[in-house]
Amino acid sequence: MAITDWPEGERPREKLLKSGAAALSEAELLAIFLRTGVTGKSAVDLARDLLARFGSLAALFAAGEKEFCQTHGMGAAKYAQLQAVLEMAKRALHEEMAQRDALSSPQAVRDYLRLRLQGLAHEVFMVLFMDAQNRVVASEELFRGTLTQTSVYPREVIKRALHHNSAAVILAHNHPSGVAEPSHADQALTQALKNALTLVDIRVLDHFIVAGGGFLSFAERGLL
Q: Which long-range contacts does 137-142 make (Cβ < 8 Å, 24+ apart)?
């Protein structure tokens, strides 16, 4: 049955307009993005197929074009639209971080890092570079590794921090394993980076680990 044949109160678009986006399921939200289904399947059915295939929205967002297009009804145009939506969301959060003290708006930082790192199949280490008012002036992915590890070089972190004239940084990386708990290597790296950056008068405000649905802050754990 096509969505247009559903009772009006059950249609995703009408439901969103009446009750707000938060009232919709992930499949319903994705169905609004997809707009149409395929023969024999509504947009909601197709959205459910995508979520079942990838396991989560985060994994869907992180999928490459080839993998995304392997789902029946999905093509390069839909992939491009999805990437455009994600990029707009990232830029909106980056603007918010650039305009406000990151420590006074921690949710924007967390949301931004989730969009950047959640669902990736390989480890990525990135840095948010801050000015003296703790506003984000730039964010960069500095190192990329394998499923289980990434080599991080303090010299390169310092080089980029000085390039941006940073007064402080926020470190972040992901755990593709889905476990947000910091390893001994994570803790040793954080301390090494903190010590190295202190020598050039740059503070480490936090180090975040993004993993599956989890999110860990070194500062909140007392590990900085």
A: 137/98, 137/164, 137/165, 137/166, 138/164, 139/94, 139/112, 141/116
